[in-house]
Design goal:
The chain is of the alpha/beta class. It contains 8 helices and 8 strands. α1 packs parallel to α8 and α2 runs parallel beside α3. The structure holds D-xylitol-5-phosphate and zinc ion (ZN). The site of zinc ion has 6 residues, from β2.
């Protein structure tokens, strides 16, 4: 089954609880949580304190995407706060094996993230021991950017690599996914689809979540 992961980066924070509840009711599978530190990416978002509050009320798994420096220092805090999945970038983590093992040892699923401009070849080793891989289809830092078309081809190539190296590993994709391209992206090999503005900028968040889940189900029937 294809999984839908609303990214709260595009939520209205005044109404965050209500909006997450609408995603749950619409059939979302995970909540994607974008952590930015103003160093690895130009933007700053939120940290473990917010994640902990969400965890108290939300029954969906929480998927923390860390766009930060010094991941090893913060991984334990996010897992203690309730992250079920934690992903870290390959671009700024020299000891990625150690960091992924740290995530797993603390009981969360470990993901490796790759930016649009980074060669997929760098993933060859890491696919052996990650639980999931997150392919960025925009440059990380902001919600609401346009999907980079080349990501479809990269996704197909990544799917081939995964089938060869570690077929149980899930592929997540993040950035610029909307109603008009979600089926194509799912068919190209994505298992988990992150959608930020494509859900939270809709008038009816619950209905939009439901609609995207239906499109994902339809993509599997094809
Ligand atoms: C970008 C974030 C994404 C982003 C997706 O740095 O990792 O999760 O919120 O948002 P949309 O769907 O609006 O591109
Ligand atoms: Zn993200």
């Amino acid at each position: 089954m294809k999984l839908l992961a609303p990214s709260i980066l595009s939520a209205d924070f005044w109404n965050l609880g209500e909006q997450i509840r609408a995603c749950e009711e619409g059939g979302a599978d995970l909540i994607h949580f974008d952590v930015m530190d103003g160093h690895f990416v130009p933007n700053i978002t939120f940290g473990p304190v917010l994640l902990e509050s969400i965890k108290k009320h939300c029954r969906l798994p929480l998927d923390a995407h860390l766009m930060i420096e010094n991941v090893d220092k913060y991984i334990p805090d996010f897992i203690k706060a309730g992250a079920d999945m934690v992903s870290i970038h390959i671009e700024n983590n020299h000891h990625i094996h150690r960091s992924l093992e740290l995530i797993k040892s603390l009981g969360a699923k470990a993901g490796v993230v790759i930016n649009p401009g980074t060669s997929l070849k760098l993933l060859e080793e890491v696919l052996h021991y990650a639980d999931f891989v997150l392919l960025m289809s925009v440059n990380p830092g902001f919600g609401g950017q346009r999907f980079i078309e080349r990501s479809i081809e990269r996704l197909r190539r990544l799917k081939d690599m995964v089938m060869e190296i570690n077929p149980s590993l899930l592929i997540e994709i993040d950035g610029g996914i909307k109603e008009d391209n979600i089926m194509e992206v799912a068919k190209a090999g994505a298992d988990i689809l992150v959608v930020g503005s494509g859900i939270f900028h809709a008038k009816d968040i619950k209905a939009q979540t439901k609609r995207l889940k239906e499109l994902l189900a339809a993509s599997e029937a094809l």
